[in-house]
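lol so apparently i was supposed to do this last week
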Amino acid sequence: MSGRTALVVGAGIGGLAAACALARAGWRVTVYEQARVLREVGAGLSIAPNAVRALEWLGFGPELRAKAQGQGIGVKTRSGRWMVRLTGADLEQRYGNPMFAMHRADLHRMLLDGAGSVTVHTGHQAIGVTTGPTGAQVGFTSDRGPVTAAAGCRRTRGARRRGRCRSS
Ligand SMILES: Cc1cc2nc3c(=O)[nH]c(=O)nc-3n(C[C@H](O)[C@H](O)[C@H](O)COP(=O)(O)OP(=O)(O)OC[C@H]3O[C@@H](n4cnc5c(N)ncnc54)[C@H](O)[C@@H]3O)c2cc1C
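anyway here it is w/ flavin-adenine dinucleotide bound
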């Protein structure tokens, strides 16, 4: 661990992917999600080659390839003729990675299960952020009432005494 702390608001696809990346880089990460329960929501998503590369870097490559389906992309005229068409093989040749289709719920579950050391708090809705030279503070409403969390600070005794770096 690098000793650096990060706070991510929202345990969706972007939030969990960022949390996984920060954790992989050695940060201590806490994710706060407003939903009380993380449910299976959404429909099928196209995962573009650049996103596939990012997921590979995060270590999800084998799982992604096992669970997702290869996909191409294109645009048709109203009469059904292809104007532009790139097959999965074309995309892989051009961008170095394929494109996949996957249900959002499966992608979300993969990120959540792979988040490892990341702590996820549900039932926390962010209502305000303040930033300063020592880090950031985020205010939340939760079932426990108002909560403040901080990240980016070194949690020294002095910092806490001066009220600059608090954690819920
Ligand atoms: C119909 C549709 C089809 C799409 N198809 C594709 C596609 O094929 N390929 C693709 O790459 N993208 C697609 N997208 C976009 C894709 O869904 C988003 O890019 C992706 O989900 C963004 O991730 P996110 O984490 O920002 O948002 P989300 O996955 O929506 O997650 C946001 C999370 O933050 C939480 N949150 C919000 N506000 C707060 C707060 N104040 N406090 C705490 N938590 C909070 C929410 O509850 C939620 O869990 C599609 C979107 C839609 C609507």
